[in-house]
Amino acid sequence: MKKLLLIIFLLAPLSFSQLLMEENFNYGASDNPDITALASNWIRHSGAQGPAYVAAGLTYAGYPASGIGGALSFTNGSSGVNDGDVHRRFTDSINTAQNIYAFFMVRLASARATADYCFHLGPYTIGTIFRGRVFFRNFGSGYVVGLSKSTETRTEDSSVVLNFNQTYLFALKYIFNPAAADDDQVVLYVYENGFPLTEPGTPILTIGPIGTGVGSDPVNIGSFAVRQGTNTPTGLVDGIRVGTDWTSTIPVELTSFTASVSGNNVLLKWNTATEINNAGFDIERRTTNSDWKKVGFVPGAGTTTEKLSYSFSDRNLGKGKYQYRLKQVDFNGTFEYSNIVEVDVVSPAKFELAQNYPNPFNPSTSISFTIPQSGNVKVSVYNLLGQEVTTLVNEYREAGTYNIEFNAVNLNSGVYLYKLESNGLTLTKKMTLLK
To answer: Which keywords does this Swiss-Prot/TrEMBL entry list (predicted)?
Structure first.
């Protein structure tokens, strides 16, 4: 019986695309009144208490960060009570002309009659420079949303009333223009279902662009902040993803990557949840102390939010440990690497020649054989008179299991013998060709 070795890596979704910030609040199964006590990457820049961590996160269909980990709980308070303002820095600040997109899920339980902002962006060293302020205000049985670039009066659309206890997807866009001190702009999109693959899709609310003429633009944008004040709402935020283009927040996202060994063949399988501009996957392999080598390519699906499955077979390997990784390549040539999976191909224990399949056959059949030691291998086909009619293999092979195809299109119907020879050992079996 053939040995089957299975190595599985299940990924809490692995994203190929590079994000400036990705926060899924995956900090364990227990609530905590202070996020800064759990996560050192969240820094309190004002106040003394909160926001809190809750272990139950938010979900939003089609959003890559949906349903991962917990969430950040914010509310309103006073001095020393629920007054903590926190921020998380990007991996790099932006100080050249480009857009910054911050996506995040929001679910409010309540809002105050007086509007106040609880989300904003800021420079890497945040200080008191708060830009792209997102406001909330109670409005009848729901709430309305407003936006300001800085300290100017917010822009609010009261014609769109959002529901309490419903999760929405927010997309805050900051247009960074270093040419002047008053030309940065901000835009806000709000979605209630679906995740748009291109900007802006079909938001239920759009505010902006606004901000031209409002001065004191920051020297860079490098952080995302959550604020608690006297009139801020009570709710949850989760799944914060920040990038410099719309599609960088919708990566080629792996949900699993596995490698299995059967004989001396390795089967790789992987699944994706979302893909953007995905030309495909280079399959790369290496052994101990060797460089990565491309051994195959599997085309991607371009742009899709459908869950897809892929596979690749690396065949006829010698014994030893092998590592594999995926190189995901976009249509524009940019690429990212996956995590690495490792397998161990072991030498077979027996010298074996399997019965061909199918048998009888017409005109092709498959022959499998196993050699426990490396050496020259010969596989030949004979008629019943003992005459050799063809040689299928005659070369050096590493120890392992191999499968070869025999096409008898030029032979007559009848019984034939096929013989395996290697390292002084011989095995012979019969097969029947029926035309």
So the answer is: Signal
